[in-house]
Structure to design on (555 residues):
């Protein structure tokens, strides 16, 4: 983050927010069966502490937090429902690195790394390129120039770079749902413009499920190539090629080394009290992982002041375009004034208090309340704290492909991700009763209606915001958290969140900025809804056709 010159702007609201923040440490108190702000606070300050090192899947911090969750589940008397009678379901997470020097042939012309091309780290399992024909796909910056998905299938799609400096990394073009997601490879002809920082980012090892472990995560191989390599592959220069023109056949293998990393979901069951219904499950979920430790420390207050100003520019409205370079240049943060209040506080640990510390501790409180309820709800409750969400929904992908209860016995899944913010300073329309619902009517109108009915029965109902459920909404929220992995199998879902904010995926997502009253209200409501679904005579009726579980998610 570059800090700019010293002019006062946006400091009045900042000062107010700084004063309203809670202390940065909190002494844990014993928790009670009820879902309370105090219990949530105790739990969140434990798991969003620096000692959890950002909870990244595959790293020590995520093992620590999953150990904490499992120990709590045991104290509550929940039944272990992971591997081999434990609370843990291990997932085959690997770190991927590419073999440094590789040669591919375009027809008979040898193209070697790193002079002509580089492979991009991938989340999924990239397809082989051997035997695939090259096709020109259009300009990366202008989708109106692109070839169709059918033309791209099985091919090595070469894309011309957008205007210099604005071409994104090639990775968006290889993701599920992109026009080119059926291609063998997508090659962005932008390597000549790559800065050293960009090269480092592009070739950083990636994290994924072991190759071939998950049929749903097959992707095109991402490549960046030079203009020269593109011309060799296409048999003509980028200046004279037209979308749909074909070129060489590629030969060779891009070899990936996979190093296993330890990562685990936590899975626990509260058995239902009705012998006829306890074979059915209401699943409730959150994700235990976050994004770990960033490269290089930044000053907390300066970063927060800058990000708050950027967020204000966007009207606190997710989905709005990023501010322009000129607007960003107009943001000035008075660092001296901030540092009169505190000395610089350098931080590199993404504590993820809201994302998804909030859902994780909310789910613990729900489980504790349900376990203490006598009698238990009629259907069984299935609690899953997913790992690897931040790496591309890997834990929920693995769980739904290898469920530890029969998949068809899961009657609904309620997912919580970021339920601890949502005030008026965080998001447009926010307030103490603000709650976003996503997906609730998509597979079962009955489930969507039940979510509304239970809300209306509250003394102070939430004001539901369905904005982010809209088909095609640019924030893509429906596809961005673990519920999507259940929905692809036709399991009706409701996703609950208090929304995005300026601390999203920043070191400033800290427990002192959480609204514990709001979070407790959300968790109580999700608990109420879960119990209503568990107790109703019939499971929610699925009135939409079952999706293809291997098809890309559609917002
Ligand atoms: Zn999240």
């Amino acid at each position: 983050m570059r800090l700019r010159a010293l002019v006062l702007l946006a400091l009045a609201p900042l000062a107010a927010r700084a004063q309203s923040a809670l202390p940065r440490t909190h002494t844990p108190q014993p928790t009670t069966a009820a879902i309370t702000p105090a219990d949530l606070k105790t739990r969140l300050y434990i798991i969003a502490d620096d000692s959890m090192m950002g909870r990244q899947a595959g790293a020590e911090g995520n093992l620590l937090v999953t150990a904490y969750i499992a120990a709590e589940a045991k104290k509550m008397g929940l039944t272990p429902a992971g591997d081999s009678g434990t609370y843990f379901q291990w997932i085959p997470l690997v770190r991927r690195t590419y073999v440094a020097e590789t040669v591919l042939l375009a027809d008979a012309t040898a193209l070697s790394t790193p002079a002509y091309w580089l492979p991009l780290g991938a989340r999924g399992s990239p397809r082989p390129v051997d035997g695939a024909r090259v096709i020109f796909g259009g300009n990366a910056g202008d989708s109106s120039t692109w070839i169709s998905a059918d033309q791209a299938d099985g091919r090595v799609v070469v894309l011309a770079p957008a205007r210099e400096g604005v071409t994104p990394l090639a990775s968006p073009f290889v993701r599920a749902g992109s026009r080119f997601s059926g291609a063998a490879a997508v090659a962005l002809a932008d390597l000549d413009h790559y800065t050293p920082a960009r090269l480092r980012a592009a070739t950083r090892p990636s994290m994924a499920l072991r190759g071939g472990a998950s049929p749903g995560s097959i992707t095109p191989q991402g490549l960046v190539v030079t203009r020269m390599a593109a011309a060799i592959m296409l048999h003509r220069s980028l200046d004279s090629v037209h979308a749909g023109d074909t070129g060489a056949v590629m030969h060779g293998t891009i070899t990936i080394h996979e190093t296993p990393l330890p990562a685990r979901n936590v899975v626990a069951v509260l058995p239902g009290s009705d012998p006829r219904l306890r074979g059915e499950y209401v699943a409730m979920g959150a994700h235990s992982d976050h994004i770990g430790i960033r490269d290089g420390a930044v000053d907390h207050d300066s970063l927060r002041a800058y990000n708050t100003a950027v967020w204000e520019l966007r009207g606190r409205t997710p989905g709005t375009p990023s501010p322009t370079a000129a607007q960003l240049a107009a943001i000035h943060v008075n660092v001296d004034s901030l540092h009169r209040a505190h000395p610089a506080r350098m931080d590199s640990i993404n504590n993820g208090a809201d994302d998804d510390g909030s859902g994780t501790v909310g789910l613990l409180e729900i489980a504790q309340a349900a376990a203490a309820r006598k009698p238990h709800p009629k259907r069984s409750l299935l609690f899953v704290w997913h790992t690897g969400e931040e790496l591309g929904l890997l834990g929920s992908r693995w769980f739904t492909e290898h469920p530890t209860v029969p998949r068809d016995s899961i009657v609904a899944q309620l997912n919580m991700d970021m339920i601890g913010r949502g005030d008026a300073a965080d998001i447009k329309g926010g307030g103490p009763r603000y709650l976003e619902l996503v997906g609730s009517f998509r597979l079962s109108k009955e489930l969507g209606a039940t979510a509304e009915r239970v809300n209306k029965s509250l003394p102070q109902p939430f004001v539901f915001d369905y904005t982010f459920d809209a088909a095609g909404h640019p924030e893509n929220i429906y596809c961005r958290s673990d519920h999507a992995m259940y929905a692809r199998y036709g399991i009706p879902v409701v996703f609950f969140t208090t929304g995005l904010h300026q601390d999203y995926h920043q070191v400033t997502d800290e427990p002192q900025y959480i609204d514990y009253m709001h979070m407790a209200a959300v968790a109580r409501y999700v608990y109420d809804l879960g119990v209503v679904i568990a107790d109703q005579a019939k499971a929610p009726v699925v009135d939409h056709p079952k999706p293809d579980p291997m098809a890309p998610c559609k917002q």
